[in-house]
Amino acid sequence: MLRTVTFDPSTVSVEFADGTRSRFHAIWLRDNALDPETRAPGNGQRLITIGDIPAKTTLSAAEVVGGALSVTFQPENKTVAFPADWLFAHRYDRDQSVEPGRVALGLTTWQNGFDAPSGDWAQVHSNPTAKRDWLAAVAEFGFAKLTGGPVEPEALLKVVDLFGYVHETNYGPYFEVRTEVNPTNLAYTGLGLQAHTDNPYRDPVPTLQVLYCLENSAEGGDSIVVDGFRAAQRLCQENPDGFALLAGHPARFEYKGADGVCLRARRPMIELSPDGELIGIRFNNRSSAPFVDVPFDKMEGYYAAYRQLAEIIDDPAMGVSFKLEPGESFIVDNTRVLHARLGYSGAGSRWLQGCYADKDGLLSTLAALEMAQPEAAE
Ligand code: FE2
Asked: Which residues surround ligand 1, an ion (CB under 5 A)?
């Protein structure tokens, strides 16, 4: 419900039932009109372009009608209504101060001691609430385990079937992670791997990765995950200038380990939205290419910040470690969470399968589940 409305030709000011006041511009309201000539009633898609709206759109009337805002636009002489709750949800006349390094609403960063969220294979396949909770953990924390799955090759594809589609690459629909003679990629040897995000040489990067364990009787080989957003936040606190250097200059990444493949990307290690929100981390020592987009007089500072970020990522206080058992898997948001592996010995065997998938599909499945179960979505 709206209490009061005042207006002039260019703006309208409303007071909501809770006392909140917000202003809206005439041009913004016209663009977002909810009438069937502006928005398709079925799918909600906008039917007009910005060019269809008169540049000199003004308000000739604004009043409360049935608790909603009714406005009349000129020169179209068009009257439309905006429900109060819609206006409240879309108000922009509010404190929008920007704090660099903040995370999006709904994300929670974590470090060592974090109780890793986990779903159960049978539950997430049969119970929509369990599936929603598991997907919500991936959305909030960028990481979740799944336990109790079958010990059979390609089971990881069934994990992806729960929320979307496999993102196929030059490595195929999925890839094997096990010891090989003459490895073409260090991930396939018994060496430990520093925490990294996968495939930073792609643009865009694969946004989700699933790693599924089929055998793990070798000594060691524990998995470690690190919240890259938490690491970036720590860097921002400890060295704001270094944070700005990593966020403000592109790094370079490259992979040309196989015939016919030469992938290159020019993207920052810490990617921010234009208003300073963390949107991505790219960190991978194996595929870093020479950095050539940092001015000469900033290169030493850039390297110091790069080293400091690496030290934060390697800090045992940051990582959550666990050993996957056969039939267990985990999913990471590859734009945010780094994964690592401790070295393992040749005794016994370790066999994982990995694949990529798209986060937007997971978030879409989650949002649809939350709409279907609104009482539990808080
Ligand atoms: Fe990896």
From this structure: 198
Q: How far is the CA of 215 from the centre of ligand 1 (A)?
A: 17
Which domain-ending residue is among 89, 109, 133? Answer: 89
CATH code for position 36: 3.30.2020.30
Q: What is the per-residue pLDDT across 128-162, written as a single tens digit (0 to 9) for each?
A: 999 999 999 999 999 999 999 999 999 999 999 99
Rounded Cα distance, 255 and 206, in Å: 14
Place of tokens 């090989």: 180
Q: How far, in Å, is the centroid of ligand 1 from the Cα of 297?
A: 33
> For residue 137, what is the domain's CATH number?
3.60.130.10
DSSP state letter for 51: G
Q: How far is the CA of 173 from the centre of ligand 1 (A)?
A: 15
Task: Tell me the per-residue pLDDT of 254-296, one tens digit each, with 9 for 90 and over.
Answer: 999 778 899 999 999 999 999 899 999 999 999 999 999 999 9
Residues 6+ apart with CB under 8 A from 349: 178, 179, 215, 216, 217, 218
223 alpha carbon – ligand 1 mean position (Å): 10
pTM: 0.89
